[in-house]
UniProtKB/TrEMBL annotation:
Name listed for the protein in its UniProt record: Diaminopimelate decarboxylase
EC number: 4.1.1.20
Domain Orn/DAP/Arg decarboxylase 2 C-terminal, chain residue ranges per copy: 338-430
GO biological process, one term: lysine biosynthetic process via diaminopimelate
Pfam family, one: Orn_Arg_deC_N
Subunit structure: Homodimer.
Catalyzed reaction equations: meso-2,6-diaminopimelate + H(+) = L-lysine + CO2
Species of the source: Phytoactinopolyspora halotolerans
Modified residues (N6-(pyridoxal phosphate)lysine): 103
Length: 474
């Protein structure tokens, strides 16, 4: 029974200062299942361990903040998607390819892991393509996305012999057609469609409603028009259609509607042009757990569900099942990583109704994880450097930036005795954190340290003030 200030918050519903789902933990040291990567556990002495390494040793060796990436976990999730989708679709027809969405997190080492695990790669800029090429990623297994690819990006991709380019605008069709024609090559392309689904996710990361920048609308006729334009370009080879409805989605009904609409267009193309496209990409967007509220589906369930949907829709339209691809990013990278911070200061604020919120300031913030500020994203965290017997108190983990919205974990119960020098770990930070990191306030970006079987290895080094100053001219 916890009789502390946080209890008052529960008692006075109108005065609640934390979300109703957040419960006072029975044991503030417990690691909520599903939030942490495969090898994370609390050691006998109470400190967190990952891949057999004490987080205090990681902090001493690599400094804080640091992104700690559990290589085994990352590779297992990549393999799970590969096996689940190729298995589920092999059972009904030609199989499936998994393109890891590098925007979630990409560096040379990770590109190599993806290649070794037999996945393909989705890149969406010249920079991401450069990482893949540097890693020696097989270029025929890369797809290039983007709503505004430059001539330089398109040319580089074509020159490298990229596996496919997902075209996103009428301007791009003519631009890419000319680039391919000049080189005397035929480039495999997919068409990014907008299926008109309102995915249940934050507005900024939903991508299939009509009023946004990506893709060709199916309902409005732009997609059918784009198909005609591509088929009329001899240097472009239309291999399939593409749909991506958004990110951090749990509800598979959005994928079902998307598959139905995109396969409807697929059937129309057959009827109008006598062409049955060989491929269909259903995008990424599979949600992960950030808090105890989230209950994502395992890859096998997603694959089985999507295979059933595609098979059913294809049968309805009298189509052969095309080769399917998907593009998970977050679901592979996200759960593999936690961010380790050191606590610097603590401030208690009295709220209306007498409750108290502790502001626990850590040595990073919105520069290493912008998602809380940008999407109002929820995270959780734990005291990582030790076990505590103190009562749980309502806390907000904030960064060191000059901004009051610089919040890392909006609401969490942490032990009342958290103090400067303690380490805090935030799970689920493998996707869209380092890849969206910035240097606000000239705070250098943290390193990514891969851990595996008792060893740690820096795969992206810490940025230094000198790195930042190198850009200043004069
Ligand atoms: C076209 C495309 N594919 C794949 C992804 C990866 O999404 P997620 O990381 O949510 O799986 C995105 C990002 O939303 C995307 O825009
Ligand atoms: N950056 C977003 C996901 C968008 C992915 C790209 N379409 C996030 O952090 O949730």
């Amino acid at each position: 029974m916890h009789t502390h200030e946080a209890g008052a918050l529960h008692a006075e519903a109108g005065q609640r200062r934390h979300p109703s789902w957040l419960r006072i933990p029975e044991d503030v040291n417990a690691l909520y299942p599903g939030l942490w990567s495969a090898t994370v556990m609390r050691g006998d002495d109470g400190a967190l361990r990952v891949a057999g390494i004490d987080v205090r040793a990681l902090a001493a060796e690599h400094g804080t903040p640091v992104y700690v990436l559990d290589e085994l976990d990352f590779r297992s999730r990549a393999r799970a998607f590969r096996d689940a989708f190729s298995g589920a679709f092999a059972a009904i027809d030609g199989g499936a390819d998994v393109y890891y969405a590098g925007k979630a997190f990409l560096c040379t080492a990770v590109a190599r892991w993806i290649a070794e695990e037999g996945l393909n790669l989705d890149v969406c800029s010249g920079g991401e393509l450069a990482v893949a090429l540097r890693a020696g990623f097989p270029v025929e297994r890369i797809g290039l996305h983007g709503n505004n690819k430059s001539v330089a990006e398109l040319s580089r991709a074509v020159d490298a012999g990229i596996g496919r380019i997902i075209v996103d605008s009428f301007d791009e069709i003519s631009r890419l057609g000319s680039i391919a024609e000049e080189r005397g090559v035929r480039v495999p392309v997919m068409l990014r469609t907008t299926v008109g689904v309102e995915a249940h996710t934050h507005e900024y990361i939903a991508t299939a409603h009509e009023d946004q920048k990506f893709g060709f609308s199916i309902a409005g006729g732009a997609a059918a028009q784009a198909v005609r334009r591509i088929l009329a370009e001899p240097s472009l080879e239309l291999i399939g259609l593409h749909s991506h409805i958004g990110s951090q989605i749990y509800d598979t009904s959005g994928f079902e509607v998307a598959a139905r609409r995109v396969l409807g267009l697929h059937a129309e193309i057959r009827d109008e042009h006598g062409v049955e496209l060989a491929e269909l990409d259903l995008g990424g967007g599979f949600g992960i757990a950030y808090t105890s509220q989230d209950d994502p589906q395992p890859a096998e369930d997603l694959a089985a569900g999507m295979a059933a949907i595609v098979q059913h829709e294809c049968a309805g339209y009298g189509l052969a099942v095309p080769r399917i691809s998907i593009e998970p990013g977050r679901a592979i990278a996200g759960p593999s990583t936690f961010t380790l911070y050191e606590v610097g200061t603590i401030k208690a604020v009295e709220l209306d109704g007498g409750a108290v919120r502790r502001y626990v300031s850590v040595d990073g913030g919105m520069s290493d994880n912008i998602r809380t500020a940008l999407y109002d994203a929820d995270y959780s965290c734990t005291l990582a450097s030790r076990r505590s017997e103190a009562e749980p108190v309502l806390a907000r983990v904030v960064g060191k930036h000059c901004e009051s919205g610089d919040i890392v974990v909006r609401d969490e119960f942490l032990p009342a005795d958290v103090e400067p020098g303690d380490l805090i770990a935030v799970p689920g930070t493998g996707a869209y954190t380092r890849s969206m990191a910035n240097t606000y306030n000239h705070v250098p970006r943290p390193p990514v340290v891969a851990v595996h079987a008792g060893e740690s290895r820096v795969i992206v080094r810490r940025e230094t003030e000198d790195d930042l100053l190198t850009l200043d001219v004069g």
